[in-house]
């Protein structure tokens, strides 16, 4: 897609610090990292969300995410990592081109993901379970 920053990086029109690349995907350092080493892994094809990805691309990205995660751990100053993807604007997806974030983590690094958890009301959990199962059958 012409105006997509990730597509422009893939095509070489915009420079990026490339970590790995193959025929299906590319891993680059995020220019606004949560921590040094924050890596973005994206398919080369312009696809907006995980549900738009062909199964082979999902499998390939997952395998490549393992490789990048190993690299982050071996590179030093990292005890663990977060792996996540935002899908759609409402979830925080700023660029409508699917990508995984791999964020290196250390104890006490100051990064906090705020999860405002809730509880289900009476029978609400079983009702949601039924709704989802029925949707999967359609």
Question: Ends: how far apart?
Answer: 32 Å
Structural class of the helix and strand makeup? alpha+beta
- What is the element string, with H for helices and E for strands? HEEEHEEH
Total strands: 5
Radius of gyration: 17 Å
Shape: globular
How large a portion of the residues is in β-strands, by DSSP E?
15-25%
Low-confidence stretches: none
> Strand order, biggest sheet?
1-2-3-5-4
**Percent helix among the residues?**
25-40%
Number of helices: 3
Mean pLDDT: 95
Largest sheet: 5 strands, antiparallel
Structure overview:
- The protein is an alpha+beta fold and 138 residues long.
- The model has no long low-confidence stretch (mean pLDDT 95).
- The protein has helices at residues 5-11, 55-75, 124-137, and strands at residues 18-21, 25-29, 39-43, 80-84, 100-105.
- It is 30% helix and 18% strand.
- It has a five-stranded antiparallel β-sheet with strand order 1-2-3-5-4, covered by helices on one side.
Topology, please?
Layout: H1 5-11, E1 18-21, E2 25-29, E3 39-43, H2 55-75, E4 80-84, E5 100-105, H3 124-137
Antiparallel strand pairs: 1-2, 2-3, 3-5, 4-5
């Amino acid at each position: 897609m012409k105006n997509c920053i990730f597509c422009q990086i893939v095509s070489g029109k915009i420079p990026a610090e490339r970590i790995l690349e193959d025929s299906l995907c590319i891993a680059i350092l995020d220019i606004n990292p949560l921590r040094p080493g924050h890596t973005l892994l994206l398919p080369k094809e312009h696809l907006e969300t995980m549900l738009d990805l062909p199964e082979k691309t999902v499998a390939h990205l997952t395998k490549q995410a393992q490789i990048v995660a190993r690299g982050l751990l071996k590179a030093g100053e990292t005890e663990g990592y977060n792996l996540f993807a935002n899908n759609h604007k409402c979830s925080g997806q700023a660029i409508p081109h699917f990508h995984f974030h791999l964020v290196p983590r250390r104890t006490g690094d100051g990064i906090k993901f705020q999860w405002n958890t809730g509880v289900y009301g009476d029978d609400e959990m079983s009702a949601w379970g039924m709704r989802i199962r029925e949707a999967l059958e359609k």
